[in-house]
Amino acid sequence: MLVFRGFRRSPAAPTVLTIGNFDGAHRGHQALLAHLMATARGCGLPAAVMTFEPHPREFFSPDTAPARLSTLREKLEAFAATGVDEVYAVRFNAGFAARSAPAFVQEVLSDGLHVRHLIIGDDFRFGAGRQGNFAFLQAAGHRLNFAVEAMPTVAEGAERVSSSAIRAALAAGDFQKAEAFLGHPYAIAGQVVHGRKLGRQLGFATANIRIRHNPPPMQGVFAVQVSVGDNAPLPGVANLGLRPTIARTIAPLLEVHLLDFTGNLYDAHLHVAFLHKLRDEMKFADLAALKQQIARDALAARAFFSPSLQTESSNSQHSLSICHG
């Protein structure tokens, strides 16, 4: 998969394109991408995606923008898994936001990406003042020789599958609903970094992961499954938040303790799937009280994972290891 910064494509060649933020890459996005791939293969043209960084709402209202479900890297991984050929990551700034709908069609779609078939969500709006819509694109397509197609809404029961609905479900601790909308458990991926080694002192070594979801869609303590490369996922307990007892941080941190597991995972890239919320993040009077609560959290996670833990313990020891963060 080729990744481009901006929307200029050289040499000139036609594309089948879709456009969107794709935050979370949920089931609605997955249906759109599957249709993109089928259409592109049928036309014998590259399947291309245009997405924006930052999210437009982060640009227009940084203080009230919604929490990110996925980073740019996580979105790119989702595109690659679908088989997309080209991704255009466009920087959403003042200049891009001020571009009129006619200029967007001419400069970006026609001159920049040479679109021959455009597939959009049924709620897609574009251009300064959100003046562009499906009807506008259809009229422009007739003039500039590209087809335009709108994908219908994907629903779960009576509710539309959307990034905002997933954010609300995660914030409420409804991981079953979030998984139904995503098609898989919600997960955060990141690299293990060095911490203060306090977890080891408390008897619960942690892998510390600096994340780019600021703010994350939820905070608290969770039962999680952690994947490292192609190895089988491991059960654990994770704290996602600002660590108010130790030293409140500006940026959120994900701390993961793998159950019955020791060793070194510094610099490894972990995939942490959130399965169940155990409690909200809390501030404790001292480290002794925090240690007691962590022990209770570990027991609660063991209770959640008890069938799989019993199976794992009867098989073999894991060869991977965790850092003492």
Secondary structure elements and their pairing?
Layout: E1 2-5, E2 15-19, H1 27-43, E3 47-53, H2 56-60, H3 72-82, E4 86-91, H4 94-97, H5 101-112, E5 115-121, H6 134-144, E6 147-151, E7 155-156, E8 159-160, H7 163-171, H8 175-182, E9 187-193, H9 198-201, E10 207-210, E11 220-228, E12 234-241, E13 253-258, E14 269-279, H10 287-314
Parallel strand pairs: 1-4, 2-3, 2-5, 3-4, 5-6
Antiparallel strand pairs: 7-8, 9-10, 9-14, 10-13, 11-12, 11-14, 12-13
Could you explain the architecture of this structure?
- It is built from ten helices and 14 strands.
- The chain has helices spanning 27-43, 56-60, 72-82, 94-97, 101-112, 134-144, 163-171, 175-182, 198-201, 287-314, and strands at residues 2-5, 15-19, 47-53, 86-91, 115-121, 147-151, 155-156, 159-160, 187-193, 207-210, 220-228, 234-241, 253-258, 269-279.
- Strands 1-4-3-2-5-6 form a six-stranded parallel sheet, with helices on both faces. Strands 9-10-13-12-11-14 form a six-stranded antiparallel barrel.
- Helix 7 packs antiparallel against helix 8.
- Residues 310-325 have low confidence and may be disordered.
